[in-house]
Amino acid sequence: MDIDKTEIIYGRQPVFEALRGFREVYTIYAIENALKWLKEKAIYNNINIVADIKLLNKEKLYNLIKHPDHQGIVAQVEKYRYTSAKIILDRKPEIILIADSITDRHNLGAMIRSANIFGVGAVIIPRNNSADINSVVVHSSAGATEHTPIVMVESINHFIRLIKEREYKILSAVKPSNDATSILEFKSFSKVAIIMGSEGKGVSNKTQSICDDNIYIPQFGEIDSFNVSVATGIILFQLKKRLL
Questions:
Q1: 103 and 32 belong to one structural domain
Q2: Sign of the dihedral defined by the CA atoms of residues 16, 198, 184, 214, in that order
Q3: Domain around 48
Q4: 12-20 vs 32-44: helix axis angle to the nearest 10?
Q5: In this predicted model, what pLDDT tens digit does every residue of 105-126 receive, in sequence order?
Q6: Last residue of a domain, which of 56, 78, 100?
Q7: Which are the contacts of 128, defined by CB distance < 8 A and separation ≥ 6?
Q8: In the beta sheet, which residues pair with residue 96?
């Protein structure tokens, strides 16, 4: 095992999903009750744990990760491997989620979790001005990172042009306006890419200019915007419902 090619993830569900996913799990560090939970869940799901297992007390486990949300279990795993854009372009999934400049790791993780639940074929993130896939994102996604293809691209706009050539309908999520279509009124297409922007700036004007349509979620209260991860879940549900 090359230590430079590994990373630490933490939390019961993330570690379990890593065992089910594509990454190599090298060592599991756990307190007794968390290890018991993991072994029982592995047996129920017919998973053979081949990683080294080290039983630690709470203090030693905390010193290893320095994070209070470890839930009694930490794992040393292979570094995250991004999916290549070519694989997604060839596969042509019916829904693609593009996360434009999402720097908050908790939001990105929650967005990936929703993407997995609603069967999104890929999540696209830019190399710059974005959170990357690290232990916080993995934890916030409840391990959905271990099953969802995630592509890191040099340019979101270049990727959009590539999928437009493959007859994708490109949608940009915005605040309610007369220039946008309600997600409740959006007519379905066979292949859709939805772009979610950061909470501070939203989708950039340059990116919006190459989209086919702007969509919004109807709002009825005094607060003027959703948390981006909440908005992502609502929009993906509506898109998936139209494609069923």
A1: no
A2: negative
A3: 3-78
A4: 40
A5: 999 999 999 999 999 999 999 9
A6: 78
A7: none
A8: 122, 193
